[in-house]
Amino acid sequence: MCPHSPSCPDAMALDHEAARSVACHPEQGWSLLCNGVVVFEDTGELLPGGDTVAPHRPTDLWQQVGGSLADPVGSPGTIS
Ligand SMILES: [Zn+2]
Fold first, then answer.
1. How many C-beta neighbours within 10 Å does residue 40 have?
2. Of 15, 52, 54, 63, which is most buried, counting CB atoms within 10 Å of its CB?
3. What's the CA-to-centroid distance between 36 and ligand 1, angstroms?
4. Residue environment code for 53-62, b if the CB has 16+ CB neighbours within 10 A, otherwise e
5. Residue 18 Cα to ligand 1 middle (Å)
């Protein structure tokens, strides 16, 4: 499916997002990669087999990993 050389990561590869875009529709918020993966602007993905990948923005990941210690708003109990 991929016409590039060297070929881009397969749709099932962990780094499948590194494949090149073959169709880009920013006005609709999605791009089609040459390995058949559709990437949405919220970082959600639609895989060729119909599986989906939930959005995983760095900011969301940061909040999950950082927990309350990294919460930019702070927890209510810290203000005295
Ligand atoms: Zn490619």
1. 15
2. 63
3. 10
4. eeeeeeeeee
5. 9
Residues 6+ away with beta carbon under 8 Å from 56? 43
List residues bridging with 45 in a β-sheet.
39, 53
Sheet holding 21-25, edge to edge: 21-25, 30-33, 38-40, 45-46, 52-53
The rounded Å distance from CA 35 to ligand 1 centre is 6
Reading the block at residue 49, the tokens are: 């087999």
- Ranges of each domain in the chain: 16-70
pLDDT digits (tens, 9 = 90+) for 5-47: 999 999 999 999 999 999 999 999 999 999 999 999 999 999 9
As beta bridge partners, residue 39 has: 31, 45
pLDDT digits (tens, 9 = 90+) for 45-57: 999 999 999 998 7
Determine the distance from the C-alpha atom of residue 32 to the mean position of all C-alpha atoms in its chain, rounded to a whole number: 13
